[in-house]
Amino acid sequence: MKKISLLLVVSIAFCFKVSSQTISNAVTSTLVSNATNQVTVYAKSNVALVDKHFNNIVISLSITDPGVADRPNLTVGTNHIPDVAVTPQTPYEEGGRMHYDFIAVNNSNAPGVNTNTWIANTPYPVLTINFSNGNGFSSSRLDHWDSPTFGPSGNSQIYYEIIQAGNGDITAQSDIFFGTLSVINDPGGWSSGTSFAPIQPLAVLPVKFKDFNVIRNKDKALLNWSVEEESSNTDKYEVLRSTNGVDFTSIATIKAFNNGGSSNIYNFTQENLSALRTKGVIYFRIKQIDKDGKFVYTDIKNIRLNTKGILVGVYPNPIKQNTTLSFDLVENSRVNYSITDAAGKMIEAYQVQGFKGSNIKTLNLGKYAAGAYTLKVQAGDEIITLPLVKATN
Q1: Are 82 and 194 contained in the same domain?
Q2: What is the pLDDT of residues 93-116, one digit of tens each?
Q3: Burial level of 279, CB count in 10 A (0-12/13-18/19+)?
Q4: What total number of domains does the chain contain?
Q5: Tens digits of residue pLDDT in 43-86
Q6: Domain with 74 in it
Q7: Pick from 261, 253, 260, 221: which is nearest to 237 by CA?
Q8: Dist CA 378 CA 385 (whole Å)
Q9: Which of 174, 198, 222 is the last residue of a domain?
Q10: 154 shares a domain with 226
């Protein structure tokens, strides 16, 4: 029963100062795997919590005991509550499980240390915990302290508890846990009972692109990109190409290395640029795709096949409603563009700040009659005109 004594010593697990309202049975919590060998404890309230002051935190995490030689070390990855300092306690074995407690104490009792609002029914991260190895990781769970009131007696585990000053225990004791497949996208309704919340399914986010570069070398384009947070869930990279900066086509697929490293560098060479077009701009971007279908893009990069002037494109053309105007500049410049009808009357005129490289703007011709129009784009002393065709809506 050593855990009961700890619960009594740390009798306040979370302390909120909430303006002008009485709260009871408001807060639920869950545990989510958000990266390989990393879990995050989330909490949400069924009412808005404002002017919060976090005083003490008690979180108890347990795993199936893999044996003395294989037990992982659990450490604080990210403390998402800035006004408390989280300290891991000495782990212990009980009932075939290893228990890891995390306690945070704030010595300042002044309210308003953390005054950001928790929106009702919205999950917020509390603590991210790192595992030194994957042993027992899949059996991770957030523990409840069972009692004669809320569960079978005789189990002395501390549970994730929230107590608010002036309102007592505001944890939703009869349904303490929440979470389905994704704590962020689908946070409602599910409960595993009052004993514990098992780890939610792995929800590894796509990799982060550290950088992406495209360099022209004679008749070739050399693409290279570096990534961070690559994991076993990372599947592949698609190389996308466009001649108008809007409509991209996949031209190559590169499998992820899956070499155990979280940071990797990839390369691709586009041969025979002159066969694609003799002048203008060719645009590239990379799409990274996970095994679960999640994906993320790099920024768009381009190479110019001529070295001077402004390059302008419109897609689609003919136009039913909206079209995309793309213009590529060799340097930052103010850009004027206008549309005139067949009689020479100006119907639209704009001035924008253009930047070196690719620029994208949307044109709306939906309110105009079908027929022929002219687009004029001017940067500096250079003027480009293009015909536009407005189709019937």
Answers
A1: yes
A2: 887 889 898 887 664 444 444 445
A3: exposed
A4: 3
A5: 877 777 665 555 667 788 889 999 999 999 999 888 877 666 78
A6: 2-198
A7: 253
A8: 9
A9: 198
A10: no
